Amino acid sequence: MSDKSTTEQPSTTRVKRGLAEMLKGGVIMDVVTADQAKIAEDAGAVAVMALERVPADIRSQGGVARMSDPDLIDGIIAAVSIPVMAKARIGHFVEAQVLQALKVDYIDESEVLSPADYVNHIDKWQFDVPFVCGATNLGEALRRITEGAAMIRSKGEAGTGDVSEATKHIRTIRGEIAALAGKSKDELYVAAKELQAPYDLVAEVAAAGKLPVVLFTAGGVATPADAALMMQLGADGVFVGSGIFKSGNPAQRAAAIVKATTFFDDAQVIAEASRGLGEAMVGINVSDLPAPHRLSERGW
Amino acid sequence: MAGRGPVGVLALQGDFREHIAVLRSLGADAVGVRRPSELAEVSGLIIPGGESSVIDKLSRLFDLAAPLKRAIADGLPVWGTCAGLIMLADTVLDGIQGQQSLGGLDIAVRRNAFGSQLDSFETELDIPVLGEPSVHAVFIRAPIVESASTSVTTLAALPDGRVVAVEQNNLLGTSFHPEMTGDTRFHEYFLSKVTSQ
User: Fold this and answer.
1) Among candidates B75, B65, B63, B102, which has minimal Cα distance to B86?
2) Predicted-assembly ipTM surpassing the 0.85 threshold
């Protein structure tokens, strides 16, 4: 150690996971433009997520959804001083290389965009910038962490305003972690096989009772009460996508969701935050979505 | 362990749970603080890492900023790490529009002074007041102390001279995150300030 006394080590696992630790208890908001990013920052977002179109538009317009235009990402980075995340397609390591070159603070390898590879995810250890990835269950979360993800978000069903999938995924992940805690070592070998995840990581999660990275939740959060529900179910923080900029009054709704996330266990504060917000985004019931249109089934 | 009441950790946003865990591992009674009534009970306070613009906004929205400023002026021991250091600075450089701080430390702090997340790092830092060995310090989109009045003591600086830990009377501020590394000496140092107040 002593010979490293003047050496700065960037992009270590601790540094990558550490930024996500600092975002806990906060709201990360999807933005398409620099103007939206500014509104999000002013409303109390801990970070913004740059993407080409918000999920509700990807859903209604169809077509291939890709990484944002670098000009838009540069504009967003210039407009705000909070961390800027940006989405790359699953398996599209060149989009990720571009986003790293643009100096975003985090990359989301996201099922909300059209996958670029239906077999492989990005080898995230090859990058200096940290990654967040979606997961619907513990096995998926652990496979993403094995590939180098420094933060996990439960997927939910983006662009619907229907929180039921987000609820299912955070409950599933937390429930599977709790189930591991009761297992003996011989049972953990079997659990690792069933989770399709490395034994050492499974054993680490069983011992700690939590993931080794921060766990946010996403996909369908549209109201202050939705955000507080996710926090009461054990999320470390929330992503809000279409729910803000597809609503009647984005600035007010964004600020209200921030308040409800901090005071997630105080119904009085959530009630106050929920008053007079105007139109929530028009929702789609996930059960009405034919399976091929469910984004959460992308990724494996 | 502490003087009059538990040691508080401001729990509006950020890595407050990690600070609470370290304090408890040292035998201190530690509680999260989100309300003025909770602040009134504590004998010391840590403002954690997080997003300073959000912590500022929430502290004003929920009527904590004014009592916090009074408590700081009345001598409550307060330690800010990263975003917390920004909150304790009299002057904030590169804040978002309208960003305020609680103040108390007669310093100017620059937000995100090292650049983007790609410029975040960990390193070994000599902190004479903690003795040997050096402290393993984690800097995440960290601020630096760009200038300080003569009444502020520098506790640590990077090899190039940039100041990253300061003390002034009842207040402590660090650019880095002692709550992340398992080295409890900085928390012990803070608790000694709380007990000796």
Assistant:
1) B102
2) yes
